[in-house]
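Anyone up for a design puzzle?
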């Protein structure tokens, strides 16, 4: 089984979307979604990116090219950790944590 197929099935199952919903959200025909899940073929890069956006995973991970990546910045809009998009709420917590670390490090000097 290809890395894409394994990762796509995992992300799709975790999303709790139907094939029809994923098709509507990605503008990829439902028959193609079905074929991807059946392992008939692997989508081109543009479609992998669309699928990853909707499924909330790293496109590199979904395609199977970054299986061991813990985090990856794909573009300025999305930051990934463990192959999942960091939410706005999580980003605020990260920023607050980093500010606390800076204060603690400043006080040590």
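Challenge accepted. My sequence:
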């Amino acid at each position: 089984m290809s890395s894409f197929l394994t990762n796509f099935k995992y992300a799709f199952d975790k999303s709790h979307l139907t094939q029809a919903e994923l098709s509507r959200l990605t503008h990829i025909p439902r028959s193609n979604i079905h074929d991807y899940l059946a392992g008939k073929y692997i989508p081109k890069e543009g479609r992998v990116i669309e699928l990853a956006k909707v499924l909330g995973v790293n496109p590199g991970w979904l395609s199977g090219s970054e299986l061991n990546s813990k985090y990856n910045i794909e573009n300025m809009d999305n930051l990934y950790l463990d192959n999942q998009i960091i939410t706005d709420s999580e980003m605020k917590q990260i920023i607050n944590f980093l500010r606390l670390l800076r204060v603690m490090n400043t006080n040590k000097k």
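A detail worth pointing out: The beta strands are 71-73, 79-81, 84-85.
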